[in-house]
From TrEMBL:
InterPro entries: CcO_II, CcO_II-like_C, Copper_CuA, Cupredoxin, Cyt_c_oxidase_su2. SUPFAM superfamilies: Cupredoxins (SSF49503). This is Cytochrome aa3 subunit 2. It holds the Pfam family COX2. It comes from the Bacteria. The lineage of its organism: Bacteria, Bacillati, Actinomycetota, Actinomycetes, Kitasatosporales. The chain crosses the membrane at residues 6-34, 55-74. It comes from Streptomyces anandii. Belongs to the cytochrome c oxidase subunit 2 family.
Amino acid sequence: MTQRRVFGTVFALESAIAGFVFLVVLALLGYALLRRRATRGTPVTGQPERPVLEKYYVGVLTAFAVFLVAWTAWQNHNEHRPPRTAPVTVDVTGFQWCWKFSYPQSPVKRSVTGTCRGKDLPTLVVPAGRPVRLRLTAKDVIHSLWIPDLRYKMDAFPDHVNTFTLTLDHEGRWRGRCAEFCGERHYAMDFWIKAVPPDEYDRFLHGQPLAGAAA
């Protein structure tokens, strides 16, 4: 999936750069401490500044910062390219303490919800290979829809709609959670997201059950 690929690429590169900078700073600090001990007792040079060295230092830091900002912005642009085909729409409502998924394009006004107790978890059904626009809101307090394996997360606010588009390029089922503390049963506010073939999704919109499931 695009989101997971972009997140993995950005995280790996930024972690490598951060690790490199940390090791360089640690090495310079160790060198300075050892050199200080080796020259203990020698007169101080009296030179308060080293302008050339400081210019190199500032220049390198600036170059790293400009690269990271520009490269991250470019990756973010690639991640959020407009879909080539019109996305299907799913309305997502978080409430204490579960989820409701409504399908406004369904001729039978299909919706799925649950209690989030035990195995009674609602399933967000989406078509594989097609863009899906999720419209998130909350009924009571702030919640956050989070799919850890796919690297998707967005807050759901009362009286407000947040929107993002995802495309799952193959069939499968993944566990989702609420990532915003919302009360005593926050820990149990899980759901499933299931990508099914487009023809099965169309049958689901018309009220037919999923193959091998009761969603």
